[in-house]
Design brief:
Distance between the termini: 41 Å
Number of strands: 2
Region (Disordered): 23-64
Shape: globular
Number of domains: 2
Radius of gyration: 28 Å
Strand content: under 5%
CATH topology of the largest domain: Growth Hormone, Chain: A
CATH class of the largest domain: Mainly Alpha
Biased composition (Low complexity): 36-54
CATH superfamily of the largest domain: MFS general substrate transporter like domains
Transmembrane segments: 77-100, 107-128, 140-159, 236-255, 276-300, 306-325, 337-357, 363-386, 398-421, 427-446
InterPro entries: MFS, MFS_trans_sf
Helix content: 55-70%
Number of helices: 19
CATH architecture of the largest domain: Up-down Bundle
Structural class: mainly alpha
Organism: Streptomyces ficellus
Length: 460
């Protein structure tokens, strides 16, 4: 393409004495409006090198969106570390139950110990996330993971040597310092793709699919290790994988979000942000869907096929998350969340209808697959809203609060589902996840900042 910065007119014939001579072309001065900006302004607006390699315009191909997502240097490395660190999250509870029940002969004790660890995590995790926001991911996540890994090893030794029961509670409570690797990974995506809502949407969908994959494969791997090797093998392997994954994740310093020692604007916690408490209640009710569905399905199937049937629900959620992330999100995230929760409420009724209508295992498995596909879009959109509502410099804390709400909902859903199964039967128990999904939808409708009438720019 020719250079258009200056225009050379055609030679002009001029009369010089008796000879016609060609006047030399004169360069037209560059227009002021096209002059290059000074170097300081170019350095401020210049995008990073990986973003300048993107093709112009939105990439509508699903593979193209994920290719753009992993374009920043170091993105694939920290993703690998995050996946490695998250896989044990689905292993620890199953491993602890198998290990403790086998050594002490009490499933009640095993359940109480794991419940104590869950409650301790719900209390400690937000404070760990606040430290991460203030001092940086690498400086906090590594020592916190070391403490959690030592707690897992202490539990292993206590069980191995048949120590008093109270030592099991103390050791497992020490694992509460485990950092929220999924939240830290989402914070990195939000930092790398700031100003690109479509890329952040794809990143949230990928992270949700990764969560589902880890929680689907973790229990299977734990059960296999405990059965094939020795009862403590699942806990030992989980501690090693978690520590190795966090070390790989923390080593990618180039993608780490900057720290914010003092919250801007004087904000002390995301809980004071308008709309955040209502959104956390939605996460709480959504967690109850997962907890109740798991307990009720285990009671309904009552056999070795229960794990495979529950795996269909997780597989459906994983696939739906990847597909949802490959499409361009519709505007108005608050309204999008309402649509996702409405779809989840409708599809959660399929297992209830299958269990009540036929009572057959194949019908229930076929109903759980679309029911699982409804959950990922709701959580992806909810996490997007969490990121937009969280004050700057508090992103890890905000997302950890969302995960804590989910954990609390899972615990409440498990208790409610178990009580319903015991008093009304497994078939009636499927009404609990339907009611929990409907409650999440109602809370979203009533909550300020999440309903369809919101006009906040941050939620659009």
């Amino acid at each position: 393409m020719p250079d258009t910065s200056m225009t050379l007119p055609a030679p002009v014939l001029a009369l010089s004495g008796d000879v016609l001579v060609a006047a030399p072309p004169t360069a037209r001065p560059r227009s002021r409006s096209r002059s290059r900006p000074p170097s300081w302004s170019r350095s401020r607006s210049r995008p990073p090198s990986w973003s300048r390699s993107r093709p112009p315009g939105p990439d509508r191909r699903p593979a193209g969106r994920y290719r753009r997502l992993f374009a920043p240097p170091g993105a694939r490395a920290f993703t690998a570390g995050a996946l490695l660190a998250r896989l044990p999250m689905g292993m620890f509870s199953v491993s602890a139950i198998i290990m403790i029940a086998g050594a002490y002969g009490s499933y009640a004790l095993a359940g109480a110990v794991t419940a104590t660890g869950l409650a301790a995590t719900a209390l400690v995790a937000p404070f760990t996330a606040r430290l991460v926001d203030r001092y940086g991911q690498a400086r906090v996540a590594v020592p916190a993971t070391v403490i959690a890994a030592l707690g897992s090893l202490a539990l292993l030794l206590c069980v191995r040597h048949h120590a008093p029961a109270w030592t099991l509670f103390a050791a497992y409570a020490a694992t509460a310092t485990t950092p929220n690797t999924g939240g830290m990974s989402r914070a990195r995506w939000a930092h790398l793709h700031r100003g690109d809502p479509a890329a952040v949407h794809t990143a949230n969908a990928f992270e949700q699919a990764a969560d589902e994959l880890c929680f689907m494969l973790g229990p299977v791997l734990a059960a296999l290790l405990c059965a094939a090797l020795f009862p403590e093998a699942g806990t030992l392997t989980g501690a090693v994988l978690m520590l190795a994954g966090v070390l790989v994740f923390a080593a990618q310093r180039a993608t780490e979000p900057p720290v914010s020692p003092r919250p801007p604007g004087g904000a002390r916690t995301p809980l004071r942000t308008p709309g955040m408490p209502a959104l956390l209640l939605v996460f709480l009710a959504t967690g109850a869907v997962f907890g109740s569905m798991e307990v009720v399905t285990l009671a309904f199937v009552d056999g070795p096929a229960a794990g495979a049937v529950l795996g269909l629900q997780a597989a459906g959620s994983c696939v739906a998350g990847l597909v949802y992330g490959s499409v361009r999100p519709a505007p108005h995230a608050g309204r999008r969340l309402l649509g996702c929760l409405a779809a989840m409420t409708a599809l959660m009724s399929l297992p209830l209808l299958a269990a009540a209508g036929t009572g057959s295992l194949p019908a229930l498995a076929a109903a759980l697959l679309p029911a699982g596909m409804a959950t990922a879009p709701a959580l992806v959109t909810g996490m997007t809203l969490i990121q937009r509502l969280t004050p700057e410099g508090r992103l890890n804390e905000g997302m950890t609060l969302a995960v804590t709400a989910l954990l609390g909902g899972i615990a409440a859903g498990s208790a409610t589902g178990g009580w319903t199964v015991e008093h009304a039967g497994a078939t009636a128990g499927y009404a609990v996840p339907v009611a929990a999904a409907a409650l999440a939808l109602l809370l979203c409708l009533a909550g300020p900042g999440t309903g369809p009438g919101t006009t906040k720019a941050r939620l659009s």
